[in-house]
Specification:
Largest sheet: 7 strands, mixed
Number of strands: 17
Oligomer: single chain
Number of helices: 15
Helix content: 40-55%
Shape: globular
Structural class: alpha+beta
Bound molecules: protoporphyrin IX containing FE
Strand content: 5-15%
Radius of gyration: 21 Å
Length: 399
């Protein structure tokens, strides 16, 4: 990341920084965001068409809570005019609020509680499928399969279809932006998953069942059924929001536990600490960096935004801000006060946070009951990618 000259008259640093997906040593982006925060509260990136980065917790929180200024009509900083609209993430209130009202009951604490036995059963099945091997790639063999399996059950689809969803994830969410044919492969992946959901919606319209798609097909907004196009956009968003996120969070958490035996042993001996430790992992490894589009010219926290400008709100900048958090760079697995915003804040705060939390607790608990001691395989080069900051592979070994 190179610092560049300030433009004439500008009172802000300009950096050559982008968050596209391409492999870098693990930890690179969290450190880069920490560095940016200490340069200035707002920074201009010279990448793409040029966009802003807000770097401090107070401003990021406020931006997330002001959809009248910071719109979700685009949430990717280098795509200010997207040709798609994922629901509810890319809607602003009040349109977005109506969809949240429909989706809320599916992800409520009570709905998640009812799913709990199935979540535990799927988690245990997966771990037992490789426990005797003494090794696995944590991400490929567990962290991705686990939330995908749960998602399939919520959709009412056979678990045997999981591989298809994981292949679409590879094309749409996980591929490196510098890979040959990236754009073409991604477009093909989006077309395939869109066609899949369109077909599923048509099937459930004919033959309603006890699953998410049937529920959505029968739901209404202000008395009118939800159009197919919006149902497809909702399914696509759930696919993008719910699978890789849990996998990435698990990967960062287990990388920490595999390399910090003291913390690992403590969780094995005191599983009651798992929910508290989970919050600390969410805080320290807050990998989502939402984008927003400015609705008007405004000076916000000193930053001279113009209508149409894009701004990046890296959540780790907020959750690791020393102005708001004690010992922000340490992982304190019994941290008592931890009001982090790893699930966002304001109207778009993560709708799946109850489900995500339970999946994370169950994964840590069931894993450590069966595999209490493990380490990262020797001679592993740990790489991450930008965008949503995530690890690519995490080979683990145990006796
Ligand atoms: C550790 C796992 C997860 C993390 C860290 C996470 C984080 C986030 C964040 C930061 C946002 C806000 C995005 C923004 O402000 O534009 C968000 C939105 C959302 N998340 Fe999650 N998420 C996780 C898991 C899930 C799961 C499991 C689901 C459901 C299957 C889910 C569904 C959603 C939905 C539907 C939204 C959009 C809400 C709206 O726009 O109103 N997430 N998530």
């Amino acid at each position: 990341m190179a610092m560049m000259q300030q433009p004439a008259g500008g009172a802000y640093p300009v950096v050559d920084f982008n968050n596209r997906r391409s492999p870098k040593p693990a930890g690179t982006y969290f450190n880069l965001y920490d560095d940016l925060r200490e340069i200035s509260p707002f920074i201009r990136s010279s990448a793409d068409q040029g966009w802003w980065i807000l770097t401090r917790q107070d401003a990021i929180r406020e931006a997330l809570q002001r959809p009248d200024i910071f719109s979700n009509t685009s949430v990717v900083v280098n795509e200010p005019e997207p040709v798609y609209r994922l629901i509810p993430d890319m809607l602003d209130p009040p349109e977005q609020t109506a969809f949240r009202r429909v989706l809320g009951p599916v992800f409520s604490p009570r709905a998640v509680k009812a799913r709990e036995p199935a979540i535990v059963a799927r988690c245990v099945e997966l771990i037992e499928s490789f426990v005797d091997d003494g090794r696995c790639d944590f991400i490929e063999d567990f962290a991705r399969k686990f939330p995908t399996t749960i998602f399939m059950e919520i959709l009412g689809l056979p678990v045997t279809e999981s591989a298809k969803f994981m292949a679409w994830e590879d094309l749409i969410i996980r591929a490196s932006t510098s890979a040959p044919d990236y754009a073409e492969n991604r477009a093909n992946g989006v077309a395939e998953v869109t066609a899949y959901f369109a077909d599923l919606i048509a099937t459930r319209r004919r033959d309603s069942r006890d699953d998410l798609v049937s529920y959505l097909v029968n739901a209404d907004i202000d008395g009118a059924p939800i159009p197919d196009e919006d149902l497809i956009s909702t399914c696509l968003l759930l696919f993008m929001a719910g699978l890789d996120t849990v996998a990435m969070q698990l990967a960062w958490s287990f990388l920490h536990l595999a390399t910090h035996p003291g913390d690992r042993i403590r969780l094995v001996n005191e599983p009651v600490l798992i929910p508290v430790a989970t919050e600390e992992f969410l805080r320290a490894f807050a990998f989502v960096a939402p984008g927003r589009k400015l609705t008007r010219d405004i000076e916000f926290d000193g930053c001279p935004f113009k209508a149409g400008d894009m701004v990046l709100l890296p959540l780790s900048c907020a959750t690791r801000d020393p102005r708001a958090v004690d010992q922000p760079y340490d992982i304190v697995i019994d941290r008592e006060v931890n009001p982090h915003i790893a699930f966002g804040a304001g109207p778009h705060r993560c709708l799946g946070s109850n489900l995500a939390r339970r999946e994370l607790h169950i994964a840590v608990e069931e894993w450590h009951k069966r595999i209490p001691e493990y380490r990262v395989m020797e001679n592993t080069e740990l790489l991450e990618h930008g965008g949503m900051v995530g690890l690519d592979l995490l080979p683990l070994t145990w006796k």
